[in-house]
Design a protein that fits this description.
Blueprint (H helix, E strand, L loop, with lengths): L3 E4 L5 H12 L3 E6 L3 H13 L4 E5 L5 H15 L4 E4 L14 H29 L3 E4 L2
Parallel strand pairs: 1-2, 1-4, 2-3, 4-5
Helix pairs in contact: 3-4
Length: about 140
Amino acid sequence: MNKTVLITGASRGIGREIAKLFAANDYNVAINYFKSEEEAEKLYLHLRDEGYSVIKVQGDVSNRIQVDSMMNIIYNRFGDIDVLVNNAGVAQQKLFTDISEDDWDWMFNINIKGMFNCCQAVLPKMINNKRGEIINIS
């Protein structure tokens, strides 16, 4: 039975390449995306057409309800998550002095709260199974 990996922010960039690497190493791959549906679909179709076991799951990692829903979809399709890669992240292309409080909250919610939500969602099963890996990218 293949292991399962969830990669947040997997539709583009580093996340996309991580998804390809895990797929090539015979993992079931869950591609998380929030707004980049077109890119997620392209990656999903590419991996599926290569014969890999893959799903795409839409969800805002900063929203715990959406994270829990996303996890349920993955558990129903693949079973337990063996590896979580917290890759979703955003940045502001501004001087620090020009970042507003709303900008800061947005970045913090995705970059930190998103990692917290996803870790907290997978940890109970990982602890119960006495196995699992979490990779946080910053």
